[in-house]
Amino acid sequence: MTGSTTLRAAGWRDLAAMARLERRCFPADAWSAATFWSELAGRPTRSYWVLTGPAAGGSDGPAEDEQILGYAGMSSDGETADVMTLAVGPETRGHGWGSRLLERLHDHARDSGAGAMMLEVRADNPAARHLYAAAGYEQVNVRRGYYRSSDGGSAVDALVLRKELSLP
Ligand SMILES: CC(C)(COP(=O)(O)OP(=O)(O)OC[C@H]1O[C@@H](n2cnc3c(N)ncnc32)[C@H](O)[C@@H]1OP(=O)(O)O)[C@@H](O)C(=O)NCCC(=O)NCCS
């Protein structure tokens, strides 16, 4: 990805493109546009960022010359903040942007006074598990059968992960 890829706070005009990317990134359990709307309405305890890049052959973003390549959101209203969602579009993966989005959430959580970050990840999602392990998250709990299966099979466990924000 080129240097024109940037991270900025998400706004109302980004919602439709975020919801479209969500359906590609989470085919089994995508959030609706209404869910994104209520998340943004939860600001300032909810905070969302979008990764944007130049539109390549037709815009899928809020502006003619821009497209949404990824996004991340969190909740912060106490000692422990929570990752609500994080996704990078298939074409943009493997270039460190998932890690950059996660670092942005960590920075904001620290600025909000949180000492730890928590999240839930599907047990059958090796890419996300690797991302979080590389960022220093440790498993603290399992929610058995928390997620719908993507292929009609058995429900999938949620792994509950935690990172102390004072640690690198
Ligand atoms: C998970 C996701 C955000 C990773 O985004 P990304 O931009 O490719 O991640 P990065 O390039 O920053 O990689 C971060 C780490 O994860 C590893 N990783 C990324 N994809 C991987 C894969 N498919 N398998 C194994 N490891 C993977 C990278 O090697 C890197 O590890 P390293 O720091 O040890 O080298 C992306 O795959 C995605 O959006 N998936 C669909 C949505 C999703 O599952 N979101 C998480 C919900 S909890």
TrEMBL record:
PROSITE patterns the record matches: GNAT
InterPro entries assigned to the protein according to its UniProt record, in alphabetical order: AcTrfase_RimI/Ard1, Acyl_CoA_acyltransferase, GNAT_dom
Listed EC numbers: 2.3.1.266
UniProt keyword annotations, A-Z: Acyltransferase, Ribonucleoprotein, Ribosomal protein, Transferase
Domain N-acetyltransferase, chain residue ranges per copy: 5-166
GO molecular function term, any single one: protein-N-terminal-alanine acetyltransferase activity
Any Gene Ontology CC annotation: ribosome
Top EC class for this record: transferase
PANTHER family on file: L-2,4-DIAMINOBUTYRIC ACID ACETYLTRANSFERASE, N-ACETYLTRANSFERASE
Name this protein carries in UniProt: Ribosomal protein S18-alanine N-acetyltransferase
Organism: Ornithinimicrobium kibberense
Taxonomic placement: Bacteria, Bacillati, Actinomycetota, Actinomycetes, Micrococcales
